[in-house]
Amino acid sequence: MCAPISVTTGGATGGCTGICRMMPQILASLGIIGVLMWNFRGLLVRCLPFSKAA
Amino acid sequence: MFKLFRNTTLQVEVTTACNLNCTICLRRGLERPNKFLSLDDFKRVLDSGSFRYVGLHGWGEPLLHQELFEMVEYAESRGVHTNLTTNGTLVGERLDEIFRSRLREIAFGIYDKELLSEVSPQVEGLVVKRKKGRFKRPKIYFDITIYQGNRDQIPEMMRFAAEMKIDAIILHRLFNVYGVDSEAKCLSEEEERELFKEIKGIARSLKIELYLPERHSYPCRIVRRSIFVTADGKVTPCTYLLEDHLGDAFEEGVERILRSEVYGSFVKHIKQHPICSKCRW
Question: How many whole angstroms from its chain centre is CA B123?
């Protein structure tokens, strides 16, 4: 009878039972995608249809 | 981004008064006067930071507080999810308020069969009323302290929980660094492994959700996920560290204290802390 329920269950049973429980993974994935896109931006720009027209 | 996932729970001690004197409770060793947090002070503390959850208990029985459910209603109206742990003895007297306030989660803090049989009519009353009224809230849990004295009683308590249609069982280790009761001893790691293996099987067969204690790490999950405010407004990193004042919640506000150097220094040196270094919770 000491720590709150949200601490002992990691918030799993309280409010956040949906997609927000996956938020760390979602944000990390978005970060990785962002870094990859930045890394291959040159290739991506060349592959885009509108860049060929120019 | 880091901020999003830390200290999401505010734990507020609404009162230091209690109607029981449990053998394993740290409160027995504390010399604190009975105090009740006022509703206005609660609102001030809650609004002084951004939290996803608020736990309304500390070293006292929260249902003794007459304005407890006004606090619950206020927190829920601000989008903060409410939960509390109770010894269960007063649940029957406040059933209507529990449902009216939209409390999200309630846990019955249990440590032996005697206490369980004492509060079982209250548990039943709550479960029956929730079913009859088709209420979705509150979720109802058993929060069981595991120690040498009740190791063999846990399977029976689990069966009782399943019969009662309790939503989940939470197990946590005994905190006995202060040596409140010399006879209350933690399980060894080996005993704990055996027990967990056994009760995982029981939980599967009973189809009841079970939350076991995590492997201890630094900073521990209590410090990572929550911050504690005592009934007189003192902010401490954990309920077990009542002497580690980080600041005054009424004067400074909780968010400011979480960003302070004092708090940062506590987290940085947590492994060397005289209590945290011995705690296995």
Answer: 17
B154-204 pLDDT per residue, tens:
999 999 999 999 999 999 988 877 766 767 888 888 999 999 999 999 999
Residues of A in contact with B9 (CB under 8 A): 4, 6-7, 11
Residues in a beta bridge with B141: B107, B168
Q: Is A47 on the interface with B (CB under 8 A)?
A: no
- 3-state class of B149 per DSSP? helix
Contact in structure between B105 and B83 (CB atoms under 8 Å)? yes
Q: pTM for this one?
A: 0.85
Torsion (CA) B126, B129, B131, B135 in degrees, nearest 10: -90
Residue of A5, A11, A24 with shortest CB distance to B8 = A11
- Residue B246 in tokens: 């980080």
Place of tokens 């000491």: A2
Give the containing element (helix H, strand E) for B218.
none
Cα B152 → chain centroid = 23
Q: Is B85 exposed, middle or buried (0-12, 13-18, 19+ CB in 10 A)?
A: buried
Tell me the per-residue pLDDT of A14-29, one tens digit each, with 9 for 90 and over.
555 556 667 788 999 9
Asked if A9 lies within 8 A of B139 by C-beta distance, the reply is no
Q: Which residues pair with B105 in a beta bridge?
A: B83, B139
3-state helix, strand, coil in chain A (%, to 5): 70, 0, 30
Which residue of A lies nearest to B86 if distances are taken between CA atoms?
A: A1
